[in-house]
Structure formats: C-alpha cells, structure tokens
Specification:
The complex is a heterodimer of chains A (302) and B (666). With 302 residues, chain A is mainly α. Chain A contains twelve helices and one strand, in the order αααβααααααααα. The longest helix of chain A has 32 residues. In chain B, β2 and β3 form a beta hairpin. About 2% of the residues of chain B have low confidence. The chains are: A mainly alpha (302), B mainly alpha (666).
C-alpha cells in the first residue's frame, strides 16, 4: 500500500514539476537579453489550453499520429520512475534498470518519429532524420557514462550507481552529460527551440503538424525529458545518496536549477551550430564521457 | 519413449508433404501437422532437459541401420531441442504463409516443386539438428544447402534470382568444403564419426576450430563472410527468406555453439568470435541503412543480429576460458534468447515484406508509401516487428539485448582481463541499437506512412488470412517473450546446460553457476514490461478519447506554406539515411549517378545513389578475377602438341630423378 502511494506521489511530482524547467530557461534567456519574458508558469497555461483544444489532423495521417505521442509520453514517464530522486532513492529498482532507462528513451524517440513521419511532409522527414541520426551519438555517450558509473559503483542498477559521486572523473562526466542533455532536449547549440525556419529545425520540425492534446503530450514529454536529464546529471556528479535527507534534497533542487540556468545562458551566449558541425560536438560529448570512463577505470584498477 | 511418437510423425508428415506436393491442401495439412508434432517434440525435449539439468541427451535413437558405413545415430539434447523449437515455429508459420502466398494459380510452374523443396529444407534442417554422427551431419547439411538453392531460384526467369542462387551455392560450397575438412580431420583424430562431449578429451583438436569458424561463419553470415546473404534473402520468395533468415543462418550459430561446447578451442576463439560479432553488428546495420530494397535491407539486419548473437557467444567463451562463469552464463543466455527472438521478429518482418511485395509487386521503398490505408494488418504487425528488432521495451528484442548488456556490464565491473573488451562491446552494442532504430523508423515511415508515391502503392490490397495468421502468430510470440520473459528461462538454462566448453587446464566441465542468477531481474523486467504495456494502453485510450471529444478537423499537411504539395515531395529513404550513411561512407562506398540541371532552361535532371555489397565487389570479385587470369595463363601449357607433352613428361621424370637423388642423400 505504501509502495503504491510512494509511486503515485513520485508520479505527481514528476508530472507537476517538469513544465517548470522550460519556463525557468526562458526566464533566464529573457533576463540575459534584457527582456521581461513570459511568466515562468507559461508552459502550464499552454498545456491546459492545448488539452482543451480541438485537433487539426492532416489528411495523410494514420492513427499512429495520435498514438505515437501517447506511447512516447508513457515511455518517458516510466523512465522517470526508474530514476532515483536524490535522498528518497528509486521506487522501482532492479539489476539492469539502467539499460531499461536508455531503451525507454529510445522507445519514446521511435514512437514520436513515426508519428511525425506519418504526415508525409518533407520538413518532418528532415527533422526526424536529424533526430534519429544525432541520437546514435547520444546513445553511445549515455552508455559510456553509465559504464563509467558502473565501474565506479560496481552495480548496474540506477539507484546504487547514482548514489556515490562519479569520483575523479566527475567534471568530465558532467561536461559530457551536459552536452548530451542539450542535444537530447534540442537546445542551442544543437537545435534552436525558437527558430521560425522549418528547414533548420530538429525537434520543432518533427511536431509541426501536431495540435491539441497530442501536442500537449509531446510538450509535456519534452519537459519531462529535460528534468530527467537534469536529475541524472546532478546525481551522476554529486554523492546525494551519502547525504542526509534535507541537504540532499536541497542540493538536488539547487543543482537542477543551476542546470536550467546554465542551459539558458548557453542559449543566450552561443549561436546554434551549422548542421555539419553538430556530429563533431556530439563526438566531443562522447569523448568527455569516454575519458570519464577511463579515469574511473584507472581509479578502480590501481 | 514418448519422443519417438512425436518425432516420427513429424518426419512422416514432412515426407508425406513431399509426395503430395501436387495437392496443396493435403500438402498443407501434412506439413503443418508435421511441424506441430516437431514443435511438441522439441518443447517436450526442452522441458525434459530442463528437468534433468545435466545437459545430457533427452532422446537417443540408434536403430542399428547403417548409412555410408557408419551407424545412424540421432540425438536430441537441450541445445538441439532449443533450435528445433524455432525451426518448428517458423516452419509451421512459413507453411501456412506459403499456401496463400505462392499459390498454384499465380505460379503454376514452380508452386508444386517449391512445396517439395520446402519440405525437403525443413526435413534436412531438422536432421542437421538431430544428427550425432559427423558424416550424416555433413549429408544433412549438404541436402539443406541444395534445397535452399532450389527455393532461392524459384523465380529463375529473373537474372538477379539466378545470380543470387549461384552466389549462395558457391559460398555455401566454400563453407561445406571447410566443414568436410573439419569433420574428416575430426574423424581421423578421434577415430570415428561419432560426435559428442567425449571429444573434449582430444586437446590436439584445438586448431580445427578455425575451419569450423569459417564453415559455420559463412552460413551464419558474419561480417566479411556474409557476401551471399543479402542477394539470396532478397530474391527468394518471402516465406523462404523468412526461414532462411530466421532459421537457416541460425544453423551456422548452432554449429558454432555445438562444437565450441564439444571441442577444445584455442585461447583466441572467444576474442575472435566477439570481435567478429561487434564488426557484424555495426557494419550490418550500417549497410542496411544504405539500402533502398526492402528485403535487402532486412537481409542486412540479419548480419547485424547475428553479430549480437556472436557477441554473446564470444563473451561466453571468454568467460569460460577465464573461469568467470557468472557473466559468461548471462552472455550465453542472451545469445540463445536472441536466436529465438531474431528468428521470430525477422520472420515476421520478411512475411510482412512479402505481403507488401504481393500487394504492390515492388520491393523498392521509393515506390511505396502510405500502405497503412490499404494494409492495416500488415502495417501494424510490421511496426510491431520493427519495434522488436530495434530492441525496444516491452518487446522480446530488448530482453535478449538486455541480457547481453548485463553480461558486458558485469564483465566491466569484474575488472577481469575481458573488462576492456566488454566496455568497447557495450558501447558498440548501444551504437548498433540506435542505428537499428534509425533504420526501422526509415522503413516504417517510408513504406507504410505518408502518402502513396506511385499508383502501385495506391492500389495495394491487404493480404488474405492465410498470410495474416502466421504474422499474427509470430507477433504474439514476440509480445509474449517480451511481457513474460521469466517463463522462457527454463528453456534457456536447459539449452545453456548442454553447452559446456572444455576449459584449458581444467578438463572438468563447469558447474552451472548460482551467482548472478538471472531469474530475479528477468521476472522484474517482465513485470515492468507488463506494467508499461498496461500504462501505454491506458494512455492511448485516454488521448484517443480526448481527441475525439475535443473534435477533429481535417486539413492538408503543413508544407512550410507551400499550397500544392504532391506525394513525390515526401522525404525519401535515401535522404533520410543520408546523415548516417555519410558517416559510414568509408566502407559503404555509395555509387552516385548525377545529372544536375544545367543551363538556363534545364532539361530533366536526376540523381541516384545505391550502396553496393562492398566486400563482394571490392574484395571477392577482384580476387576471383585474379584467380581466373592465373588459370587462363596456366592453360597456355596445354597447347595440344604431342611434342610439348613429351617435353613435360621428360621434365617430370628429370624432376623425380633430382628428388630421388636429393632424398637419397639425406
């Protein structure tokens, strides 16, 4: 009974807190640019409005156009349930759940990609092609990061892998995972969430034809993914599992906020890269993770 | 024993099918009944093996007949029963599919002979699994190759089919040659044709492993030896492609597993197999991304999945050689489960591709599109198979890849000599998974979604129930293994118990490890998958009803403001994969034909690109040409003049004389 209550409580926390992060990033960007910017809670208003709105469907689409976002959203939410929340640990944890986590993200990507290709638009095709291609490098980087954590902790379960700090390679791992966070969540310098040119978009091009509740599911899923990666990054670097409850929770909150601020600052200070250069930057993120793995490896052997 | 009463009717049904191939209904009933009996026998054998737990034979049949001078000896143990289950499932599904796909009405000339060869193929593959005698193993192996050749060339009016059949035949015979040498040397060293764990004692047999690796590796389609596979699988009728890809290449894996478990192997064996596995996995999927032919693309994915299986087998061997049985056992279980899984989802995908081919008459993806309207069942089931092969939870492909990943991660945290290799393998496995996902997004999106690109795609039709039912069956099997993987653990451990490689220095077989018991996490994974499936269903229903309630309006696709988009403006398979194929251009070597628009009033312009089979065209063909040239040069010796031949005789005699003198001096 308490386990079910625990899971429900976590679900509620993930669902309610996730849309806060994009709002914070937008606020940071607005401050950096000297604007007032939209309210921090703007995404909540958008989601509520979209949920009530009617849907415009392309004449080309199949049911996958609506089902894809639903499956994708559930996949991201289940991935969130696998992730330990700082001091409270994970409600679901078993040997090998770290790999399930990565493949749940892949499931979300697969369903969203098919839902986008469903429209038969060349722009959606471009967006999906970029998304799935860049994801190849992201996935390699994520697996490498998990290997580093596995070497550090000797475990294949997220709850025990993320409890201690990443050790000597923590800074490298943080840099690598931050790169993956920006790429997976389609932020500058990989993708520009605010661009208005369909030809140069990745994630936004994929969802051009979505509207109403399916779009709400996609936007909420994207916010969830951002929070997911911010928490993962924090817990990979800080030894939250070894601290007592309140300091750990505080550190988690502050660090997630810091990640949001950093993403906002990157977005304000950098231009987005030319598409040809994106794989280079992604490879750099992968190399950071790889060096973190090697550092962890050397530390373990000697 | 009860097994006799199951395997005998299985064989009888298949033989009866050969003789009744002119009567499709009787053939269907006989063959299907045979496959059912074989399935029952294999399951009974597998669970019998799980019950005894010692890895020995559960059925042994020596009728006292003799063939080729040695006694017939058939045997079923955990490992062969494991492969026999897959053969029976795919054989049954393929039989049913063939009865709707390759009918007498459409193929009056080839349908009856095709049915006979089909039964011959099933029968000889079953015999390969059962034979416990090297000579008879070879005979069954050769029979299976011949049957497969005649099935691949069923459409022999097409030159590509003939070429594909020839390539398959030639490659298979290189493999058979290696196996002839392998079995002959084995028999010469061990003193008999009998196969079995008794061979473990012969430590001098180690180098024979390399012959087996080439022979079975060609059949399995591991990377540099896969040259025959894409064209053979693409040009065979689809039910044949399904069994070739699902089962026939697994016999190569079976051979490798069988003989690495029975024979002492060199120390490098595990490393080589794991390395070939990594190469096959990554390059197989890279080549698949470059293909525009639906069935050829699926064929390259067989190379990829064989790579994943070999990775598991290789690390199991490394573990056995190093005495770390715990993670090796996980790797072996992953490899074994992937044998089943790949058989199931690849057969499903090939049957789906067959339905597309049947409905549209083309395998070119750029001529398809929007097929979900006409073929909702095929589209849905193909999508399911695509998610399974991309290794996505909650389906079966993820379970086996997860087991392989677990073993690699355990190997890394064990800090043993294999840890560094395991790191690399894990990263490459992740890369493979993401590439496979990209490839199947491309396939599903281009073939089934969007708008029809040509009239043939527009006028497609759904396949009949005889073709739909086998696909449903295979899809259900994929979902079942995904949602309840723990049910299949006894079968896996029974098969794994029969694989006990002799360890260098320690002739005792390894005890089944109790540490790192995979049962508990496997059950938890199954529970998670079940919960995920329930949640997905709930979310789908919720969103669907919400959309219906809020009201739906129909409009054209937003094309950046362009008002008159046409289906030809959709993204193509080639453009979709261009980013990734660009990364792999060093090995894919795509061939481009460009006629760019030129001048002020350009005429028609075009751009085509295709990815050839690099190993075949850049390595095998040049070497073959060199051999032919050398042979032609040697032919000049035979000029037809008596004087020359007398000269050769004299030279030969002189050489013999010199040899005799030198030999005498020594």
């Amino acid at each position: 009974m308490t386990a079910a209550f625990d899971i429900l409580l976590r679900l509620a926390a993930w669902l309610l807190l996730a849309p806060l992060l994009p709002g914070l990033i937008n606020r940071v960007k607005a401050l950096a640019a000297g604007r007032r910017g939209p309210p921090v809670f703007q995404l909540y208003f958008d989601l509520a409005k979209l949920w009530r709105k009617g849907v415009v469907l392309s004449t080309a689409v199949s049911p996958a156009h609506v089902l894809g976002p639903a499956v994708s959203w559930v996949a991201l939410l289940s991935a969130a349930l696998l992730l330990p929340v700082g001091p409270a640990g994970a409600s679901l944890s078993f040997r090998g759940d770290a790999l399930l986590f990565i493949y749940l993200l892949a499931l979300a990507r697969f369903c969203l990609a098919l839902a986008s290709l469903d429209t038969g638009s060349a722009f959606e095709g471009m967006g999906v092609a970029r998304e799935v291609s860049y994801a190849v490098l992201n996935e390699a980087a994520l697996i490498t990061a998990l290997l580093a954590l596995c070497v550090q902790s000797g475990s294949v379960s997220l709850a025990t892998m993320l409890a201690p700090s990443a050790g000597a390679g923590a800074a490298l791992l943080a840099a690598g995972l931050f790169g993956v966070l920006l790429a997976e969540n389609c932020r500058v310098p990989f993708d520009d969430p605010n661009t208005h040119l369909e030809l140069t978009m990745v994630h936004e091009a994929m969802i051009l034809d979505h509207s109403g509740p399916p779009l709400a599911a996609i936007l909420h899923g994207a916010a969830l993914k951002l929070l997911l990666f911010a928490v993962l990054l924090t817990e990979a670097v800080l030894p939250l599992g070894q601290w007592t409850f309140w300091p750990a929770l505080g550190a988690l909150t502050v660090s997630v906020l810091l990640v949001a601020v950093a993403a906002g600052l990157v977005e304000s200070l950098l231009a987005r890269l030319a598409f040809r250069r994106v794989p280079l930057l992604l490879t750099t993120a992968f190399l950071f993770c790889l060096f973190a793995l090697l550092v962890a490896w050397k530390g373990g052997v000697s | 024993m009860s097994m006799d009463w199951l395997l005998l009717p299985a064989g009888a049904g298949l033989v009866a099918g050969i003789f009744t191939c002119r009567f499709p209904r009787i053939w269907l009933m006989a063959t299907f009944a045979g496959a059912l009996a074989a399935f029952a026998a294999a399951v009974a054998g597998l669970y019998g093996a799980a019950w005894t737990h010692d890895g020995g034979a559960v059925w042994d049949w020596q009728p006292g007949w003799s063939l080729g001078g040695t006694e017939v000896h058939l045997q079923l143990d955990g490992l062969s029963a494991f492969f026999l289950v897959l053969l029976a499932v795919l054989g049954g599904a393929g039989t049913l599919y063939a009865s709707g796909y390759w009918t007498d009405a459409q193929h009056p000339r080839t349908a009856p002979t095709g049915r006979a060869w089909w039964n011959g193929l099933l029968l000889s593959m079953g015999l390969v699994l059962l034979c416990a005698n090297g000579l008879h193993f070879l005979i069954a192996w050769e029979l299976f190759t011949v049957c497969a050749y005649f099935l691949i060339t069923q459409e022999r009016q097409r030159p590509e089919a003939r070429a594909a059949g020839w390539l398959f035949f030639a490659a298979s015979h290189v493999a058979t040659l290696c196996l002839f040498a392998f079995f002959a040397l084995l028999a010469a060293h061990s003193g008999g044709w009998e196969l079995g764990p008794a061979l473990r004692a012969h430590l001098d047999l180690k180098p024979l492993f390399w012959l087996a690796l080439i022979g079975f590796g060609i059949k399995a389609g591991m990377f540099p030896l896969h040259i025959w596979l894409p064209s053979a699988h693409a040009n065979a009728p689809s039910h044949v492609s399904a069994i070739l890809s699902g089962m026939a290449i697994k016999l190569g894996i079976y051979g490798l597993m069988r003989f690495t478990g029975w024979l002492p192997v060199p120390d490098a064996a595990g490393w080589v197999i794991a390395g070939l596995g990594v190469v096959s996995a990554v390059l197989g999927v890279a080549f698949a991304l470059g293909q525009h032919d639906l069935k050829r693309l699926l064929a390259y994915h067989s190379v990829e999945n064989i790579g994943i299986i070999l990775m598991g087998l290789g690390f199991a061997l490394i573990a056995a050689a190093n005495g770390h049985a715990a993670w090796g056992q996980l790797a072996l279980l992953g490899a074994l489960l992937h044998v089943w899984n790949h058989g199931l989802f690849k057969a499903l995908l090939f049957l789906g591709a067959g339905s597309v081919l049947h409905a549209t008459g083309t395998r070119q993806m750029s001529r398809l599109g929007g097929l979900w309207r006409a073929m909702p069942w095929t589209a849905g089931l193909f999508g399911l198979g695509a998610a399974a092969i991309a290794g996505l939870p909650p389906l079966n492909g993820f379970v086996s890849e997860w087991l392989v990943y677990l073993s690699l991660f355990d190997a890394v945290s064990a800090h043993g000599p294999a840890a560094f290799a395991a790191m690399l393998a894990a990263v490459f496995l992740g890369l493979t998974g993401a590439l496979a996902l990209a490839c199947f997004v491309k396939v599903c999106g281009v073939v089934f979604l969007g708008l029809p690109r040509t009239p043939v795609a527009e006028h497609a039709h759904e396949c009949g129930w005889r073709m739909r039912l086998p696909m449903l069956l295979l899809g259900a099997a994929c979902v079942t293994i995904g949602l309840a993987p723990a049910w299949f653990l006894p079968a896996l451990t029974a098969a794994a118990a029969a694989w006990q490689p002799p360890v260098a220095g320690a002739p005792e077989p390894l005890a089944p490890p109790a540490l790192h018991d995979p049962a508990a996490p496997l059950a938890l994974l199954g529970a998670f998958h079940l919960a995920l499936a329930v949640l997905v269903t709930a979310a789908v229903v919720l969103l669907w009803r919400r959309v219906r309630r809020n009201g739906v309006e129909r409009a054209g696709t937003w094309d950046c403001g362009y008002a008159a988009p046409t289906p030809r403006m959709q993204y193509t398979a080639g453009s979709f994969a261009a980013i990734i194929t660009g990364w792999f251009a060093w090995i894919l070597r795509p061939v481009r034909h460009t006629h760019p628009p030129a001048g002020f009033f350009p005429a028609a312009a075009d751009f085509t690109e295709h990815t050839p089979e690099t190993v075949l065209e850049e390595v095998v063909t040049p070497v073959g040409r060199l051999v032919m040239r050398l042979s032609a040069a040697a032919r000049a010796l035979q000029d037809g003049r008596v004087q020359s031949y007398i000269l050769y005789l004299l030279l030969g005699l002189a050489a013999l004389g010199v040899l005799a003198v030198i030999g005498g001096a020594r």
